[in-house]
Design brief:
It is built from 3 helices and 9 strands; from the N terminus they run βαβαβββαββββ. By secondary structure, it is α/β, with parallel strands linked by helices. The protein starts with 12 loop residues before the first strand and ends with a strand. The structure holds inosinic acid and magnesium ion. The site of magnesium ion (MG) has 4 residues, from strand 5.
């Protein structure tokens, strides 16, 4: 069995498309304008949470006009290959940069329980970041276990499992240019 398949799992199918590429781009354009305003004249580190934030980061960063943006990545794992949070956050890769004294904007794909982002905020504050703010493209308010202060939010969505635009199920579907509900 390949490492990216799920024991005993049924093969999901792609269901309702929640957001088209145009809708995603339009919302990111609005958020990028806010970020440009908010960080004008300041340093800014966009810290993407791999792997889910790959598309948001690529598109958002190209919409910014801020001319001192630095990009870095952090890798954490909170989901196994299932649709439920393991509740345990594993640090897989720390940022390369020393974030002490810097303005960090965490860029993530989706806030579900909120556990990953709230853990990450604490982690980055402990490393001495001057400020830590969060952008999440999606949020499932009904599933929140902890409240994450999202300075920038793309869209609220129902508690369905979604994939595409960086988001996966068992490492698949990340390459879809739209965001869809997966039916199991
Ligand atoms: P949380 O810790 O429960 O907020 O979720 C953390 C991570 O789980 C998110 O950053 C995503 O990478 C992943 N995740 C949560 N919900 C979904 C989903 O519906 N589809 C794909 N990935 C998800
Ligand atoms: Mg994520």
């Amino acid at each position: 069995m390949p490492a990216d398949s799920v024991a005993g799992a049924s093969e999901p199918s792609i269901g309702t498309i929640l957001f088209t590429p145009d809708q995603i781009r339009d919302r990111l354009t609005e958020l990028a304008a806010q970020i440009d305003d908010d960080y004008r004249g300041q340093d800014l580190v966009l810290l993407g949470v791999l792997k889910g934030a790959m598309m948001v980061m690529a598109d958002l960063s190209r919409l910014l006009t801020h001319d001192r943006v630095v990009i870095d990545w952090i890798t954490v794992s909170s989901y196994g290959d299932s649709t439920r949070s393991s509740g345990v956050i594993r640090m897989m890769k720390e940022p390369d940069l020393d974030l002490a004294g810097r303005n960090v904007l965490l860029v993530d794909d989706i806030t579900d329980s909120g556990l990953t982002l709230s853990w990450l905020i604490g982690h980055l504050q402990a490393r001495g970041a001057a400020s830590v703010e969060v952008l999440s493209l999606l949020r499932k308010p009904d599933l929140a276990k902890v409240e994450v202060p999202l300075r920038y939010l793309g869209f609220d969505i129902p508690p369905d499992f979604v994939a595409g635009y960086g988001m996966d199920y068992a490492q698949r579907y990340r390459n879809l240019p739209y965001i869809a509900v997966l039916n199991f």
